[in-house]
Design a protein that fits this description.
The protein has helices at 18-24, 29-49, 69-92, 108-121, 137-150, 158-163, 210-222, and strands at residues 10-14, 54-61, 96-100, 128-135, 175-178, 197-200. It is α/β, with parallel strands linked by helices. Strands 3-4-2-1-5-6 form a 6-stranded parallel β-sheet, sandwiched between helices. Strand 3 (96-100), helix 4 and strand 4 (128-135) form a beta-alpha-beta unit. Helix 1 (18-24) packs across helix 2 (29-49) and helix 3 (69-92) packs parallel to helix 4. The longest helix has 24 residues, at 69-92.
Length: 231
């Protein structure tokens, strides 16, 4: 079986359940997010070993601003540290780092750290890591429409929309995985997932590791993708 694994070109993770993981252990939500960042490290390395071309992750949605200020502050400091240390290390290994979302509203130091690693890794040709930050899919589509309108075009086709999404140039999204037992997409990559396979796992995001990826790829390999056609 292991040799027959189908490898998606582009996989997206909705990293859910950090808070519940922490709660179950009598820890703070921030401990859950810290453990979530560790799981992300493991998953990125595991995906790269499998030859996956692009990994997208949902780190902070437009709706997450409604969380307590202290949690938001913690998340951005975690993401800044992650950009400065881990993402820089991955960039040295050839990963290309991109972000999706409205970055203009981010705290200045987070924005600086992000811009540095985007620039540092821009000529790399290895696995693409696409981090969705202050991201919402509807907002992304509306932004694309506005970009098209600004160019003066009055009739739109699918390719024009594709070209104005944050994911321009990334391989088609083959697979979306959500942790923690919730079975919804929560405004994540709605255009891109039109023909993606969807996998929902019951375990919380901090419990994801290399073995979880193996499980995911086994399940993905069993799926019969017909893209609306007949075999
Ligand atoms: C959802 O779990 C998770 C988030 C809103 C944040 C995701 C962030 C990380 C995994 C931290 C590391 C990320 C980077 C890019 C370094 P939740 O808090 O909603 O969990 P709950 O539903 O159990 O409360």
């Amino acid at each position: 079986m292991a040799n027959n694994l189908k490898i998606p070109r582009h996989i997206a993770f909705i990293m859910d359940g950090n808070g519940r993981w922490a709660q179950q252990r009598g820890l703070q939500r921030s401990d859950g997010h810290r453990a979530g960042a560790e799981a992300l490290k493991k998953m990125l390395i595991a995906c790269s070993k499998k030859g996956i071309e692009a990994v997208s992750v949902y780190a902070f949605s437009c709706e997450n601003w409604s969380r307590p200020q202290a949690e938001i502050k913690f998340l951005f400091s975690l993401i800044s540290q992650f950009a400065k240390k881990e993402l820089k290390t991955y960039a040295d290994q050839g990963f290309r780092v991109r972000f999706s979302g409205d970055l203009s509203q981010l705290p200045k130091n987070t924005l600086n750290a992000i811009n540095k690693v985007i620039d540092y890794s821009k000529n790399n040709t290895g696995m693409i890591v696409n981090i969705a930050l202050n991201y919402g899919s509807r907002q992304e589509i509306v932004r694309a429409v506005n970009l098209i309108l600004q160019s003066g075009i009055r009739s739109v086709d699918e390719q024009m929309v594709e070209d104005c999404l944050y994911t321009v140039g990334l391989p088609p999204l083959d697979l979306v995985v959500r942790s923690s037992g919730e079975k919804r997409l929560s405004n994540f990559m709605l255009w891109q997932c039109a023909y993606s396979e969807l996998i929902f796992l019951d375990k919380f995001w901090p419990d994801f590791d290399e073995n979880t990826l193996e499980e995911i790829l086994k399940e993905y390999s069993l799926r019969d993708r017909r893209f609306g056609g007949i075999k």
